Amino acid sequence: PVLCLHTQTCGHAYALESNGDLYNCDHFVYPEHLLGNIHQHSIKTLNNSERAIAFGEAKRETLTADCRRCDYRFACHGGCPKHRFAVSPSGHPAHNYLCAGYKHFFQHVTPYMNVWRELLAQGYPMASIMRWLAQDARKDTGAVSRNHLCPCGSGKKYKKCCGKA
After folding, report:
1. How many structural domains comprise the chain?
2. Is the distance from CB of 162 to CB of 156 less than 8 angstroms?
3. Whole-structure pTM over 0.90, yes or no?
4. Does residue 30 form part of some domain?
5. Which of 71, 88, 112, 119 could form a disulfide with 66, with the two C-beta atoms 3.0–4.6 Å apart?
6. Among residues 21, 26, 66, 140, which one is catalytic?
Protein backbone atom coordinates (compact mmCIF):
# COMPACT_ATOMS: atom_id res chain seq x y z
CA PRO A 1 0.00 0.00 0.00
CA VAL A 2 1.09 3.51 -0.81
CA LEU A 3 -0.08 6.78 0.69
CA CYS A 4 -2.29 8.59 -1.79
CA LEU A 5 0.00 11.62 -1.70
CA HIS A 6 2.87 9.54 -3.13
CA THR A 7 0.95 7.81 -5.91
CA GLN A 8 1.37 8.77 -9.55
CA THR A 9 -2.29 9.75 -9.87
CA CYS A 10 -4.83 10.37 -7.16
CA GLY A 11 -8.53 10.61 -6.52
CA HIS A 12 -9.42 7.33 -4.84
CA ALA A 13 -9.33 8.49 -1.21
CA TYR A 14 -12.95 9.51 -1.32
CA ALA A 15 -14.77 11.95 0.86
CA LEU A 16 -18.42 11.04 1.34
CA GLU A 17 -20.76 13.62 2.82
CA SER A 18 -23.75 12.65 4.97
CA ASN A 19 -26.13 13.60 2.14
CA GLY A 20 -24.42 11.11 -0.24
CA ASP A 21 -22.25 13.60 -2.14
CA LEU A 22 -18.98 11.98 -3.21
CA TYR A 23 -15.67 13.76 -3.83
CA ASN A 24 -12.36 12.34 -5.07
CA CYS A 25 -10.50 13.48 -1.98
CA ASP A 26 -11.09 15.03 1.43
CA HIS A 27 -8.74 17.89 0.46
CA PHE A 28 -11.01 18.86 -2.42
CA VAL A 29 -14.52 18.95 -0.98
CA TYR A 30 -15.65 21.91 -3.10
CA PRO A 31 -18.57 22.19 -5.53
CA GLU A 32 -16.25 22.11 -8.56
CA HIS A 33 -14.91 18.70 -7.45
CA LEU A 34 -18.24 17.00 -6.73
CA LEU A 35 -18.37 13.65 -8.53
CA GLY A 36 -22.02 13.06 -7.84
CA ASN A 37 -24.32 11.53 -5.27
CA ILE A 38 -24.30 7.86 -4.30
CA HIS A 39 -28.10 7.90 -4.01
CA GLN A 40 -28.26 8.57 -7.75
CA HIS A 41 -25.17 6.71 -9.07
CA SER A 42 -23.01 3.86 -7.80
CA ILE A 43 -19.57 4.61 -6.41
CA LYS A 44 -18.12 2.50 -9.23
CA THR A 45 -19.88 4.64 -11.84
CA LEU A 46 -18.70 7.86 -10.18
CA ASN A 47 -15.15 6.51 -9.84
CA ASN A 48 -15.00 5.62 -13.54
CA SER A 49 -16.47 8.92 -14.71
CA GLU A 50 -14.47 11.24 -16.97
CA ARG A 51 -14.48 13.83 -14.20
CA ALA A 52 -12.94 11.40 -11.67
CA ILE A 53 -10.31 10.19 -14.13
CA ALA A 54 -9.39 13.75 -15.12
CA PHE A 55 -9.01 14.70 -11.45
CA GLY A 56 -6.59 11.83 -10.86
CA GLU A 57 -4.59 12.40 -14.05
CA ALA A 58 -4.21 16.12 -13.27
CA LYS A 59 -1.78 15.22 -10.49
CA ARG A 60 0.68 13.77 -13.01
CA GLU A 61 -0.04 16.27 -15.78
CA THR A 62 0.59 19.36 -13.63
CA LEU A 63 4.03 18.48 -12.24
CA THR A 64 6.56 21.29 -12.39
CA ALA A 65 9.68 20.92 -14.53
CA ASP A 66 11.67 20.50 -11.30
CA CYS A 67 9.48 17.53 -10.32
CA ARG A 68 9.79 15.96 -13.75
CA ARG A 69 13.61 16.05 -13.45
CA CYS A 70 13.78 14.97 -9.80
CA ASP A 71 15.68 11.80 -8.82
CA TYR A 72 12.91 10.95 -6.35
CA ARG A 73 9.94 11.42 -8.65
CA PHE A 74 9.38 7.65 -8.67
CA ALA A 75 8.72 7.76 -4.92
CA CYS A 76 7.11 11.17 -4.48
CA HIS A 77 5.21 11.98 -7.69
CA GLY A 78 5.01 15.62 -6.64
CA GLY A 79 3.15 14.92 -3.41
CA CYS A 80 -0.43 16.00 -2.81
CA PRO A 81 -1.80 18.57 -5.29
CA LYS A 82 -3.28 20.46 -2.32
CA HIS A 83 0.29 21.25 -1.21
CA ARG A 84 1.35 22.74 -4.54
CA PHE A 85 1.39 26.43 -3.80
CA ALA A 86 5.11 27.20 -3.57
CA VAL A 87 7.54 28.36 -6.24
CA SER A 88 10.09 25.76 -7.35
CA PRO A 89 13.85 26.41 -7.15
CA SER A 90 13.85 27.21 -10.87
CA GLY A 91 10.92 29.62 -10.51
CA HIS A 92 7.93 27.50 -11.54
CA PRO A 93 4.67 28.12 -9.65
CA ALA A 94 2.45 25.39 -8.18
CA HIS A 95 5.35 23.45 -6.68
CA ASN A 96 4.88 21.32 -3.56
CA TYR A 97 5.89 23.32 -0.49
CA LEU A 98 7.11 20.11 1.20
CA CYS A 99 9.53 19.31 -1.63
CA ALA A 100 12.75 20.19 0.21
CA GLY A 101 11.70 18.04 3.17
CA TYR A 102 10.75 15.13 0.95
CA LYS A 103 14.12 15.32 -0.84
CA HIS A 104 15.97 15.40 2.47
CA PHE A 105 14.00 12.38 3.68
CA PHE A 106 14.49 10.37 0.49
CA GLN A 107 18.22 11.17 0.41
CA HIS A 108 18.52 9.97 4.00
CA VAL A 109 16.62 6.68 3.55
CA THR A 110 18.00 5.71 0.12
CA PRO A 111 21.01 3.71 1.38
CA TYR A 112 18.84 1.87 3.89
CA MET A 113 16.16 1.12 1.32
CA ASN A 114 18.83 -0.23 -1.04
CA VAL A 115 20.12 -2.59 1.66
CA TRP A 116 16.55 -3.61 2.49
CA ARG A 117 15.88 -4.38 -1.16
CA GLU A 118 19.00 -6.56 -1.30
CA LEU A 119 18.08 -8.40 1.90
CA LEU A 120 14.58 -9.11 0.56
CA ALA A 121 16.01 -10.26 -2.79
CA GLN A 122 18.17 -12.75 -0.88
CA GLY A 123 15.12 -14.14 0.89
CA TYR A 124 15.61 -12.49 4.28
CA PRO A 125 12.51 -11.30 6.18
CA MET A 126 11.73 -7.58 6.26
CA ALA A 127 12.70 -7.37 9.94
CA SER A 128 16.29 -8.33 9.07
CA ILE A 129 17.00 -4.67 8.30
CA MET A 130 17.04 -4.06 12.08
CA ARG A 131 19.88 -6.56 12.57
CA TRP A 132 21.78 -4.93 9.72
CA LEU A 133 21.26 -1.47 11.26
CA ALA A 134 22.59 -2.68 14.62
CA GLN A 135 25.67 -4.18 12.95
CA ASP A 136 26.19 -0.98 10.96
CA ALA A 137 25.93 1.10 14.16
CA ARG A 138 28.59 -1.05 15.84
CA LYS A 139 31.02 -0.25 13.01
CA ASP A 140 30.77 3.50 13.63
CA THR A 141 30.98 3.86 17.41
CA GLY A 142 34.17 5.88 17.77
CA ALA A 143 32.42 8.79 19.51
CA VAL A 144 30.17 6.61 21.67
CA SER A 145 31.27 5.96 25.23
CA ARG A 146 30.08 3.07 27.34
CA ASN A 147 27.44 5.16 29.15
CA HIS A 148 25.97 6.91 26.09
CA LEU A 149 22.75 5.70 24.51
CA CYS A 150 23.43 3.01 21.95
CA PRO A 151 23.40 4.35 18.36
CA CYS A 152 21.27 1.38 17.26
CA GLY A 153 18.22 3.14 18.71
CA SER A 154 17.36 0.53 21.35
CA GLY A 155 17.22 3.12 24.14
CA LYS A 156 19.76 1.12 26.17
CA LYS A 157 23.21 2.27 27.21
CA TYR A 158 25.90 1.28 24.72
CA LYS A 159 27.64 -0.97 27.30
CA LYS A 160 24.40 -2.95 27.83
CA CYS A 161 23.58 -3.25 24.12
CA CYS A 162 25.83 -3.26 21.06
CA GLY A 163 28.92 -2.44 23.14
CA LYS A 164 28.91 -5.75 24.98
CA ALA A 165 32.25 -7.44 24.63
Report:
1. 1
2. no
3. no
4. yes
5. 88
6. 26
In a domain, 136, yes or no: no
pLDDT in 10s for each residue of the chain, 165 residues: 578 889 999 988 999 999 999 999 999 999 999 999 999 999 999 999 999 999 999 999 999 999 999 999 999 999 999 999 999 999 999 999 999 999 999 999 999 899 889 988 999 888 888 887 877 766 665 677 878 888 777 788 888 887 775
Show the domain range for 11: 4-61
Across the beta sheet with 34-37, the strand order is: 15-16, 21-23, 34-37
Does the residue 69 lie in any domain?
Answer: no
Going 81 to 87 to 90 to 92, the CA torsion angle's sign is positive
C-alpha to C-alpha distance for 130 and 36, rounded to whole angstroms: 47
